[in-house]
Amino acid sequence: MEIRNLSIIAHVDHGKTTLVDGLLELTSSLRSKERTERVMDSMDLERERGITIKSKNAALLYRHTKINIIDTPGHADFGGEVERVLSMADCSLLLVDAFDGPMPQTRFVLDKALGLGHRPIVVLNKIDRPGAEPDRALDAVFDLFDELGATSEQLDFPVIYCSARDGYASRILERAGTEDRDLIPLLDLILEHVPLASGNEEGSLQLQIMNLDYDDYVGRLAVGRVFRGRVRAGQNAILCRPDAPAEDFRISKLYGFSGIRREEIAEASCGDIVAVAGLESFVIGDTVCEVGKADPRPPIRVDEPTVAMSFLVNDSPFAGKEGRFVTTRQLRERLLREVRTNVALRVIEDPERPDRFQVQGRGDLHLSILVETMRREGYELQVSRPEVILKRMDGQTLEPYEIVVIDVPEEHAGNLIQELNRRRGSMQSMDNNPGGTTRLEFHVPTRGMIGFRGWMLTESRGSAALTARFLKYDRHAGEMPGRRSGALISTERGESVAFALFNIQERGSLFIGPGVAVYPGMIVGECSREMDLDVNPCKTKKLTNMRASGADEAVRLTPPINMSLEHCLEFLDEDELLEVTPQNLRLRKRHLDPVERRREAKRKTLTPAG
């Protein structure tokens, strides 16, 4: 049977998961109980947020050909997933929204695919969307290929017009949805354009691990591509890695993919994508080889992390009341376990504070997903404000910059431009789109983007849409203005009272309502001024035996702001922490120990290069 390996790459929300659903449904690759919307988004967080976080595999049969499909994340914060799994594929399917055109993450994922020598198929999706301009989007895609240094063969890419939601595709725009009413033209194009999986089938085994999974019955599974030879269940093999001696093991189980399912198989040939079991120490990038014929493939390289956060054991007055995993040992084991599967993540232990770990990632979303996952698993911890990772080169301090694209109604564009300029951003372009919206493109230091998204949504009343991706390391932009507002800080321990909150709400916006447990140092709201303000949310009304001359005024509270995890991280200042438990998110002031005070004082005396 012929094998084709294909990755699907796109910007967030351009429809690649919906397209995979359509292809699996068309080829009858799904069982009845598996037929759900966005079937590849199997994680709860993926369904809730509408984004792909983890790369996944699927397979379908069409005209006696097995097509292995690799669904990749579209957000640049999860670029570590994209970089390692693209090497399993021989070609990429690039989805572009016919209305939006190429976006920042489109550039990111396409650059990785072109660097591997892929000749992508361009799919202009959502051609049925009102205001869609497929011709304009196609011109922009060609310009993007050219900017990224595509070869002449890569520039000669095939194009197909598609509506993944309605399940049709056509090579001719005028026939889409009329003469061509299904996705068969796309499958035919895949067979024509995607090269056959190649390799020396008679050579010694060489299988590189690109992904990890887990099965309750057989334990850890290593997912990868057979680049050479054949692999069999029950076979003795060795695990090769560049920084450790080879390890002997026996392949206890071998699985292939059918639809979204893993099915046990006896043997797989060169070019196929499989999952093997038999060892708990599998690590992404390792190579499985035959005994006595160690020949590891080059290790997987991913871009360096740009943002860091401190993860600490919870030491608040409410510590240990809500979480199942609360100790330093449990926190350390969980973070080190994450590093084994999340190759873009780094964990650095603090020699001065064994209960604190610096976790480095590709962006604040990358780290916030980890925090939310741990929270749902029952972990209790504290995290600090996200900070960028600086570099020193040729005597200069460098910091990461991002390309930021914002679509916003015209009436709010001026305020957003002014704020981005305040955050050391530089405008690259401004275009007026049909429908009264403006598209802004800025180059902004990553420091300047911390806390901006929440401000932008408030300022635009939720009407602005932002996308960003890492651009480069460049000269330090100098001092960055911080949060404009202070915090309302509780001075008492107890339960919040409506009478006290009624008087406090005149001084700012509240994060809590009545009946909420608070403690000294806990942040209960945002102050309307730039300074912090101590308040007592537990203060009750004094009662006397004297009748009032008139009726008491009714206590009317403004509904509190519902702070999500991302909003909390954006709100944090340098001297504040976020307490994360399975049930609550609490902002609090940080109490520095003597070592931290000296380190903080030393940091503030350093003048950044600019």
Task: Write structural notes for this entry.
There is one protein chain. This protein is of the alpha+beta class. The chain folds into 4 domains: 2-193, Rossmann fold, CATH 3.40.50.300; 206-290, Beta Barrel (Elongation Factor Tu (Ef-tu), domain 3), CATH 2.40.30.10; 391-475, Alpha-Beta Plaits (2-Layer Sandwich); 487-572, bipa protein (OB fold (Dihydrolipoamide Acetyltransferase, E2P), Beta Barrel). Strands 18, 19, 20, 21, 22, 28, 30, 32, 33, 34 and 35 form an 11-stranded mixed β-sheet that branches. A hairpin with a 2-residue loop joins β23 (391-393) and β24. The longest helix is centred in the first third of the chain and has 14 residues, at 134-147. The protein is globular, with a radius of gyration of 27 Å. 43% of the residues are buried. Mean pLDDT is 86; it is low at 603-610.
The level of helicity is 10-25%
Uncertain runs:
603-610
Just name the CATH architecture of the largest domain.
3-Layer(aba) Sandwich
Largest sheet: 11 strands, mixed
Instruction: Find the structural class using helix and strand composition.
Output: alpha+beta
Q: Which descriptor suits the 3D outline?
A: globular
The number of distinct helices, counting runs of at least 4 residues, comes to 15
- How much strand content do the residues show? 25-35%
CATH superfamily of the largest domain: P-loop containing nucleotide triphosphate hydrolases
- Give the termini separation: 60 Å
According to DSSP, the number of beta strands is 35
* CATH topology call of the largest domain: Rossmann fold
Q: How large is the radius of gyration? A: 27 Å
The overall number of domains is 4
Q: Any idea of the CATH class of the largest domain?
A: Alpha Beta
Mean pLDDT: 86
